[in-house]
Amino acid sequence: MPRSQKSKLQAAEKRRQAQGEAQGKGAQATAAVKEESTSSSSPQSEDTTQSLPQAGSSSTSQWCRRAQATTITSTAVSCTRSDEDSKSQDENKASPCEAPYYTESTGEDSLTRNPGLLEQFLLYKYKMKQPILKEDMLKIIGKNYEDQFPEILKKASERIEIVFAVELKEIDSTRQSYNLISKLKLPNNGRVRPGRGLPKTGLLMNILGMIFMKGNCAAEEDIWKFLGMMRVYAGRKHFIYGEPRKLITKDLVRLQYLEYRQVANSDPPRYEFLWGPKALAETSKMKVLEFLAKVNDTIPSAFQSYYEEALQDEEEKIQARVMVRAGALAKVIVPSRAMPQNIFPPLVKPELRHPADKKI
Predict the structure, then answer these.
(1) N or C terminus: which one in the chain shows less Cβ crowding within 10 Å?
(2) Secondary structure element (H or E) that encloses residue 167, with its range
(3) Which of 135, 75, 62, 144 is nearest to 103 (CA)?
(4) How many CA atoms within 13 Å lie on the side-chain side of 112?
(5) Which of 23-37, 279-293, 321-335 shows the lowest mean pLDDT across its residues?
(6) Average pLDDT of 22-30?
(7) Which has the minimum average pLDDT: 101-105, 106-110, 226-230?
(8) What is the pTM of this model?
(9) Are 94 and 302 in contact (CB under 8 A)?
(10) Mode of pairing for the β-strands spanning 132-133 and 271-275
């Protein structure tokens, strides 16, 4: 066999081996993430505890992202203002409930297949609380796609962000080490409770968005109707969120991200949700709107009425901060009328300076 032909065959064999190794590692990561689904599933909740797609699929979290987007799309009527005047005024304005959800190609090119593999790997590393190294990520996508790594990583991290509300950030430039960081300061980097697991921040951001769109106060039945379209049900264990009722009405309330209170004079008792103090301190209507806009693959200003409200909220916060700083500055500066009058030593009369200075 000619040497050139032999070298070509060897090169082709190496490429096949590299692709096989990448798919094998992606499959291991998928199996590790899927393990939580298997351990938490029960006959009662088989329809809600869906497993992640296998390696090579277009997205590890496709079902969850589409569920969130479908939730927002399907609740277009219920998300609008209850006030009839608001409805008539906003009739021709865009709503985050009506925006088209994120779509992706079903092709098997590197920019659709490799982000899926990388997503599985990133979620696996997050779940295991292990650092994410660039050299390991390059092994996942394969040597043939190293030149496309920045774009593949961007796609993978964006798709994780719109589901879990976590951002990929570099934590060590020397080691080129990364981590997925929760958008809110939830305990355990978004896990809420100690131990391994996937972030709960995305669920919380969706609930905060729903509360915002319902006039800053949402009835409990509306929240569960909203979550039901994401296949998150009270009393049914979810492979990401655990028992949702406990997470939402107990844990997130205890952590002060949500306020859960009884509706006044309701008989039988009814309950409603508001933003808690921690949510008000750590995020804003604009940040939540930006998250919802990213889920719907659009920009915040497309939702005009909500965008205007979010802008007004930002302006009020800026004014409040200015007033606080002005008040603090006023306490530091001593008013002129309070300054002591005898801060300089008394002047000595000329005739008392020295006997030799006296006039004869």
Answers:
(1) C
(2) strand 166-172
(3) 62
(4) 10
(5) 23-37
(6) 50
(7) 101-105
(8) 0.66
(9) yes
(10) unpaired
